Amino acid sequence: MSEEVFSQRTTTCGALNKADNGKTVVLNGWVHRDRNHGALHFINLRDRYGITQVVVDDDASPALQAVASELRLEYCIAVTGSVRLRPESMVNPEMSTGEIEVKAQSIEILSRCAPLPFQIDDGKETREDLRLKYRYLDLRSQGMQQRLKLRHDFILACRKYLASRDFYEIETPTLIKSTPEGARDFLVPSRIYPGKFYALPQSPQLFKQILMVGGMDKYFQIARCYRDEDARGDRQLEFTQLDLEMSFVKRDDVLSLIEDLFNSVFREVMNYELPARFRRLSYNDALNTYGCDKPDLRFDLPLRDVNDLAQKSSFATFKDIVANGGDVKAICAPKTEGVDFSRKYITELEEAAKIYGAQGLAWIKVGENKSLSGGVSKFFGGLEAELLDRLEADEGDMILFVAHQNWKKCCASLSAVRTKLGKDLKLIRKGFEFCWIIDFPLFEYNEQAGHWEAAHHMFSMPQAEYLDTLESDPGSVKGDLYDLVLNGYEVASGSIRIHDVELQKRIFRICNFDDKTAEERFGFLLNAFRYGPPPHGGIAPGVDRMVMIMSEQTSIHEVIAFPKNTAAISPMDDSPSEVDQQQLDDLHLIINHPKPKA
């Protein structure tokens, strides 16, 4: 390494332009590209702010030529030099610094780089396991740096907006009492109290409600949450929420606040204008029209009920399902240039539907003069006009049917077909389409356990009209619940909360928690509710998922600095890992390894 004293930068690699012509500057960064043309060297120097071209001219000193010849990719270096304009034919409009270059006067190697496991270049595909193992290299890529900047900007814009609306940012504990909230808790053994455990919070739910009892009125935090559940593209074991709660509010107050918040954030961060108010869909309408409670509204393709036409048809399978209380739904796939509705493609659509419970996928093609052909068309003789009118189908389109005894499975199966068509037929519009899903069921029945459970969580207020029939007809009760959906992802969930002790106990009992168990698990909340709690409600947008969508990614790994992989492992630091026996002894723990299967 050069013996020169470290030259600290005077500017960054993304800041220089033609106005800096003639200035002497010091740049620090990493060698992104190195082109050696004998005595002439071109070095692309990169830092978080951009890339600057550094040139070692053929008249440079032998010492400078020697250092330049020693450089390799990702060496960390300091360059002192003078800014000069590039020749007009060499200007690079793709670079913010493309009008200038820096003529090197000296180069200091600050640290060397071992042979790279992959090239740090966003144009090249690298396996995710390799990227996560060497995350410190992956973080140097332009894509990761831009996405983490977007995450920073998003969080900062949220903080600024909420502070302007009189919200306090308040931290809640990370080590808490284990309470059932849906997923498994991560447990933390106590060294001081053998046999007792803290839990990591699945959300700050109980504490933010207690903050309302404490008169904080408007609270938020950027909350770390932990759930011991299987990972997937838009979910992992640890995640971040923008958690907020307000006193003396109703549902519309919360929804309006979030609409105003994201209008402000998208305008500031994305230079994107959202509608002032987001579309609202009831839970039942969302399922009936789009097949799911998180519909992607960037394309149309609604699901249509065709029970009446199925009954008029001569197709025995459809007729029997409808006669026995089932449903037949259909969707129209529009004629699209470059897409052939071949038997092979229909089979692919059918496989997508079967994942969600469909037994099969029936189909009809619309031909010239709106004639019907193929699939189950022969069973719809005399019903052509009604069917085409119902599906708004035209020549070259294809009509697809799912029939099932279970309405939800019928909807979900055809929703999977809708999603695949949207992608394959390139129907999805660019942009951001928010919508609210409201009027959720408050309870759902767990067939395996044989009792009712909360559809979201047990602290959500029932809608007022159902208060007298909670116990007698739990299945019909709608909650004062709301989800925010963006581009086919649920990005926030919330509710107006229960603030009455006796009503909270009723909900616990319906969910199979008797009074004794409820006091053991939630006594501190119930006790707080005995001291004048205000009506309150809140919501928790997911930071990871929001930024993932805003950056047009499909995995939250792309917007988290150090994520776990889909096997819940961190390849970089090899967690989870074993600990030594002394640590186990201090915690009074014994590892009971599962016995190998015979």
Terminal CA distance: 59 Å
Please identify the structural class as seen in this structure. Answer: alpha+beta
Shape descriptor reads: globular
- Taking all residues together, what is the mean pLDDT? 94
Strand content: 15-25%
Q: Give the neighbour order of strands across the main sheet.
A: 6-9-10-22-21-20-17-11
Largest sheet: 8 strands, mixed
- Helix tally equals 16
Q: Give the total of beta strands.
A: 22
| Approximate helicity band | 25-40%
Radius of gyration: 30 Å
Poorly predicted ranges: none
Describe the protein in words.
With 598 residues, this protein is an alpha+beta fold. Helix content is 28%, strand content 23%. It has 16 helices and 22 strands. The protein has helices at 62-70, 128-133, 135-138, 142-164, 205-213, 251-270, 283-290, 307-312, 316-323, 343-354, 384-391, 407-424, 501-510, 515-528, 543-550, 581-586; strands spanning 24-37, 40-47, 50-56, 76-85, 100-111, 168-169, 187-189, 197-199, 218-226, 238-247, 279-282, 304-305, 327-333, 362-366, 372-373, 398-404, 434-438, 443-446, 451-454, 481-486, 489-496, 536-541. The strands form five sheets. The protein has an eight-stranded mixed sheet, with helices on both faces. A five-stranded mixed β-barrel has the order 1-2-3-5-4. Strand 18 (443-446) and strand 19 (451-454) form a beta hairpin. Helix 4 crosses helix 15 (543-550) and helix 10 packs across helix 12 (407-424). The longest helix is centred in the N-terminal third of the chain and has 23 residues, at 142-164. The radius of gyration is 30 Å and the shape is globular. The model has no long low-confidence stretch (mean pLDDT 94).
